[in-house]
Amino acid sequence: LGPGLLLVAGSFAAFRLLNRALERLVPPPPSARRNRWKWRNIWTSLAHSVLSGGGALAGFCLYPELPQDVADTHLPGAHSLVAVSVGYFLEDFVDMLCNQELRQSWELLFHHSVVIVCLGVAVLLHQYVGFALVALLVEINSIFLHLRQILLMANLEHTACYRLNSVVNLGTYVVFRIATLAWMTRWLFLNRESVPLATYAVGTVGMAIMTPMNIVLLYRLLRSDFFK
């Protein structure tokens, strides 16, 4: 338990420090100065998405046999990446709780709670690390979701860059978010007899919550960026 929890704590502290430093590293444009904490929050989230999404993709490229056994295969690097992600989601949870009204942030707070529990199981048990790594592939799409928010806050929604990002965002949403969640749901269904009941319950509830949330988000994206 020690190294995993230390990584979670270190990640929390590192992302907290990054969040504080980002206003100097990436100064907000005039349109975002009234919501400085949100500007910092999105850039922090972008940094995590690049790290975790890129790390997960690299993991599957380096170990193509990993999807064949996502329950028992234990890669120290993958375990560390999952622990770092738990630290980030804890930091983002605290950041939203301190800076945003609950009625505006409850949906993301609920999302983060589910993610922290599901990834935390892999960190604590040193099992299902491969399954957690599959889940982190979703962060590849999150890169473009966060870029979209940054462009909107900078009043650049009418630019070619925003339109290009919208197309890439939609493509990666289908490939790395919808398809990934579908694969995870299928894996749980096919392996229900070999997964302990408590772990199976956590995974099933997580998928039951995350899938509708992501379908609703896809609808919002389509309505906002393509069907105005």
From TrEMBL:
The keyword Membrane applies. One of its GO terms (cellular component) is plasma membrane. Keywords: Membrane, Transmembrane, Transmembrane helix. The chain crosses the membrane at residues 131-147, 167-185, 197-222. It is a multi-pass membrane protein. Its main location: membrane. One of its GO terms (biological process) is membrane assembly. InterPro entries: TLC-dom, TLCD. Residues 34-227 form the TLC domain. It comes from the Eukaryota. It is found in: Membrane. PROSITE patterns: TLC (PS50922). This is TLCD2 protein. The gene is Tlcd2.
